Amino acid sequence: MATQKTIEDTRRFAGMVASKQGWTLNPDAEFTGTLIEGLTTNWNRYGYYLCPCRDTEGSREADASVICPCRYAREDVAEYGHCFCALYLRPDFAASGSEIRGIPDRRNSG
Amino acid sequence: MLDTLEYTKVEGENKKHTVTVYALSTCGFCKRALAFLDTHKFEYSYIYMDKIPLETKTEAKKILKEKFKQDVAFPFAVVDDREPLVGFIEADWKRTLEV
């Protein structure tokens, strides 16, 4: 099992991903806190950052497309303004104060 | 098989609909969905699918998908044992649950 992660480790990770991709972390601190906690839980359960809003299919290989940042995040951020779990937002979407909402899971559409 | 899962029941004065929520304990939208039901005082049952054995979860998802002709994403709510609500879009939940 990989080394355990702390909430702070995960917060740093998410901040680095956002910065690298040109995204903004969701400014809703409570919502983001839930996701950071969820990601941390998933790392400590599975050994990788499984998206907090997706369930495992049993292995890293099967979950490869939904390890944070997931394979669909770029497309979702571009189309909907945020990724599937709404941790990462498009900067203009975040600035507009638009409401995040459940979006279709591209994982299911193959 | 869905009947044999161990749901957590939340009491509430609004019993207009029977609501069962399949959720993930790690998910922000699932948390919002349950908070929505609490805010509107619904009585409902929920289960965290990430906290049950993988085989059980896989079987439950298969049954839900076949029964409701919907891919399972979370939160997945079943209203009155017939209408699925997939993902949390507050306007949809309000309309379906009549609040």
CATH class of chain B: Alpha Beta
Query: What integer value in Å does the Rg of chain B equal?
Result: 12 Å
Q: Enumerate the strands of the largest sheet of chain A in spatial order, edge to edge or round the barrel.
A: 1-2
User: What do we call the CATH topology of chain B?
Assistant: Glutaredoxin
Can you write the helix and strand succession of chain A as a string? HEHHHEH
* CATH architecture classification of chain B: 3-Layer(aba) Sandwich
Shape of chain A: globular
Q: What is the secondary structure topology, with strand pairs?
A:
The complex is a heterodimer of chains A (110) and B (99).
Chain A (H helix, E strand, L loop, with lengths): L6 H15 L2 E2 L3 H18 L13 H4 L9 H8 L7 E2 L1 H6 L14
Chain B lengths: L7 E3 L3 E10 L4 H12 L2 E7 L5 H15 L7 E4 L3 E4 L3 H8 L2
Parallel strand pairs in B: 2-3
Antiparallel strand pairs in B: 1-3, 2-4, 4-5
Walk me through this protein's architecture:
The complex is a heterodimer of chains A (110) and B (99). Chain A has helices at residues 7-21, 29-46, 60-63, 73-80, 91-96, and strands at 24-25, 88-89. Chain A has a single domain (7-96), classed as Alpha-Beta Complex (Ferredoxin Thioredoxin Reductase), CATH 3.90.460. Chain A contains 5 helices and 2 strands, in the order H-E-H-H-H-E-H. The model of chain A has no long low-confidence stretch (mean pLDDT 96). Chain A is mainly alpha-helical. Chain B is an alpha+beta fold. Chain B has a single domain (2-97), classed as Glutaredoxin, CATH 3.40.30.10. Chain B has 3 helices and 5 strands; from the N terminus they run E-E-H-E-H-E-E-H. A 5-stranded mixed beta sheet of chain B has the order 1-3-2-4-5, covered by helices on one side. In chain B, a hairpin with a 3-residue loop joins strand 4 (76-79) and strand 5 (83-86). Chain B is globular. Chain A binds chain B through residues 31-32, 34-35, 37-39, 41-42, 52-58, 85-87, 101-105, 108, and chain B through 24-32, 49-50, 54, 57-58, 61, 71, 73-75, 86-90.
